[in-house]
Specification:
Blueprint: E1 2-6, H1 7-12, H2 14-22, E2 27-32, E3 35-40, H3 43-69, H4 75-101
Parallel strand pairs: 1-2
Antiparallel strand pairs: 2-3
């Protein structure tokens, strides 16, 4: 559960809120003048988010490497090759399905 709270209320209830966050009962979005400025989450949740972020960065690194390998190839040529590869894979899949129906 996520609670949205004013910063002044968070200050008043800090100890209680820390216990709720620690036991994974809540996440707290802290607002100042109606604007979200911070969040309080458990250390466990932070570890999970950090792990997700690291995985995302690793995936994007791979995409950047792939993009770099094709940076000097014209877009039209890439599109042509991608369409050719897709057609080949689809034909192979149709052939496999036809064999499975027999």
């Amino acid at each position: 559960m996520t609670q949205v709270m004013k910063a002044s209320v968070v200050r008043q209830q800090w100890s209680q809120l820390l216990n709720q966050v620690f036991t994974d009962q809540t996440r707290i979005v802290v607002e100042k003048s109606g604007i979200p400025v911070a969040a309080v989450i458990s250390a466990k949740e932070l570890e999970r988010l950090t792990r997700i972020d690291e995985q995302r960065q690793a995936r994007f690194k791979v995409l950047d490497e792939i993009r770099g390998a094709f940076e000097n190839i014209p877009v039209k040529e890439l599109e042509k090759e991608v369409n050719k590869a897709l057609a080949q894979v689809r034909a192979e899949n149709r052939a496999k399905r036809a064999l499975n129906k027999k």
